[in-house]
Amino acid sequence: MQDLWTLKYRAGTLKEILGNEQAVTTLSELSQSGTLPHLILYGPENSGKTTAALALARQLYGSTWKNNFTYFNASDFFDQGKRYLVRDKRFVRFLGTDDPKKIYKSVIDIFKEIINEYAGMASLDADYKLIYIDNAESLNSDAQHALRRIMEKYSSTCRFILSTTKPSKLISPLRSRGLQIFFAYVPDAVLKTHLEKIGCAEKLQFSEGALDAILYSARGNVAKAVQTLQLVSLLARGSILTEEMVYEATTLGRDENINNLLSAALEGDFSKGRQLIDEMIIEKGLSGTEILERLSEALVDSGESDTEIARLVVKISEADVCLKDAANERIQLERLLSTFS
Predict the structure, then answer these.
(1) Residue 110 sits in the same domain as residue 195
(2) pLDDT at 116 (0 to 100)
């Protein structure tokens, strides 16, 4: 079975992280200072937040980093709920059952209990442990207030790192307890060099413009670029990777629901559009920003006139701005649908 290149070529140290020089410098200085505070890493999806947290743990703890680093995904807790909890073996002793129907505690009570216990256990070989909570924007208000109190209570035994694409969804008391560090997508020049190194390691050959096509599709998203490169290499089957293969790979990777959503929006079918939005948010776990990004890509390839595409891209951009401070993504997406036709 072939390894995923996103994991195979993931940065292992802070120095290896692509772009985000200011964030990397800040984390390096904090790791050397011996006074690491709680951290809030924010920025778009796949901009390097989790990679940076893992690299920080390796720099702090060396070979024992796995003993001192705990990962939780807030969206798993609060979007999937008890169905997820029974699948994670770490939580068996908290639940006492593998049947979600027999769990009588609320998800938030289980979350508090789990975080309390992990935070309260002191490290055996370090001054403190790291608890990393990904997709922190999925925590509801009660969970965030509980987390704030836990952070204060166990500041001597652990440091929390919260990762989010929407810092505005974190309550002010929680934001004020962590040093906020911004992550952005990687410049094309830096990303192209990274793809060339992977191509060299995997003995790939590129036609002129193939890498530029990947960069155009990825728009600075390292994970998306590497995933596309691996998919195109499978399509090539040992031959030269071409722009046409990149286009085929990116088209294959597009969610059919996005095309259906675009059609529903253009036709003014609001009911169907709402149903598709629910499927993508609830069942597939896509964020509002991801849906807008994919919708804009589908729009460019839709065959609509340049004038119409420009008009609708402006509307998508306006919706993207509104999403940054939105409490409910679905409302903003539904509003966008109503303005398309």
Answers:
(1) no
(2) 87
pTM value > 0.90: no
Average pLDDT of each block of 10 consecutive residues along the chain (341 residues)?
Answer: 82 93 95 90 91 95 92 80 70 68 74 86 88 90 91 90 90 91 94 94 91 90 92 87 85 72 86 87 77 83 82 86 74 85 70
Question: Do 109 and 17 reside in the same domain of the chain?
Answer: yes
Considering its fold, how many domains does the chain have in total? 3
Looking up residue 205, the CATH number of its domain turns out to be 1.10.8.60
Identity of the residue numbered 302: S
The residue segments making up the domain with residue 215 are 188-252
Please tell me the predicted confidence (pLDDT) of residue 23. Answer: 95
**15 lies in the same domain as 81:** yes
- Predicted pLDDT at 225: 93
Q: Is the dihedral of CA 112, 117, 122, 125 positive or negative?
A: negative
Among the candidates 157, 182, 207, a domain finishes at: 182
